[in-house]
Amino acid sequence: MATEPPLRIEGVEVAPSGVEIEDRKAKHGTVAAASDLGVLGIGSKSDVSLEDATVSLLQYRIVSGREELVAKEGLAGKKSGKDLANEKSSYVEAVNVGSGSNIPPVFEIVDGVADIEIPTEVFEDVEPLWNSFVVGYFMGDSTYIGTIHSTVNRIWSTPKAKIDVQFISKRTVLFRIEDEQMRKRVLRRKYWHIADVPLVVNEWNPETAQDPPDMSVLPLWVDLVNVPGYLYSREGLKFLSRTAGKFVKLHPNTERCIRMDVARVLVEVDLTKPIPQKICFKDRNQRNITVEVVYP
Predict the structure, then answer these.
(1) Domain membership flag for residue 18
(2) Among residues 71, 102, 124, which one ends one of the domains?
(3) What predicted TM-score, i.e. pTM, was given to this entire model?
(4) Of 63-67, 210-214, 273-277, which gets the smallest average pLDDT?
(5) 256 is in which domain, residue-wise?
(6) What's the first-to-final CA gap in the chain, in angstroms?
(7) Distance between alpha carbon 255 and the CA centroid of its chain, in Å?
(8) Phi and psi for 238 in degrees, rounded to 5?
(9) CATH number of the CATH domain containing 159
(10) Is the per-residue pLDDT at 225 higher than 90?
(11) Of 88, 95, 56, 94, which is closest to residue 72 (Cα–Cα)?
(12) Coiled-coil annotation: which residues (predicted)?
């Protein structure tokens, strides 16, 4: 039966497995068994060739009261080069886990230009990064972004999703609304008021960004001054406001009758047509009544 060649550990001859060996040159006169090679990270006979195995005793320490070699702290769990090679992955591979199509483009760069053909898979079944954006157009000077942010997060946000706000221009604001149902609700209503400034919202995409909506018809708060008491009702104010445009709603202060001399009504006003400054009519006793129309 052929004998196994000894294992050299920097001057230490290790006999075949199961036979105790002695380090003649080690300071501590350590005695270890070849079966303890696993502690050194070398492994068993089947894992590594004994002829090629060489380790340094300086990487190990002696445990008090035990005559064995153990790896120093931080080195026992050191992985082999083979294990590290198997675990290696690029940054791109890590971040693309769970992503869609991984079809690489086929191209050739000529004079700095890469001519490629985009496959159908890239066009279909994709969700644009801008899908959750809504663009808003203020009908007048917008308020501070802090006021806008706090207001929309009070009336639009959900417990799971807050609203992000950013200015595109002085009167144009981009809102990021992650909640799909809330986003649809905001778009369905279309006209909003933020800090008493009318706001028109529209779905945002690269096409609409270059083509703002028609601003000829705008929602405006209209003040009806000196409305007779018998017309100070929802139907009465709705009837009078239609001289300025399409009735939308009453102001909350008007609904609560905070001021009886002024009624504020939200109306969609067509700016391409003449708008009234006064409304004249006769009451039941045929007296002439004049209601002033003010556009704040």
Answers:
(1) yes
(2) 71
(3) 0.46
(4) 63-67
(5) 217-294
(6) 108
(7) 39
(8) -65, -40
(9) 3.30.70.330
(10) yes
(11) 56
(12) none
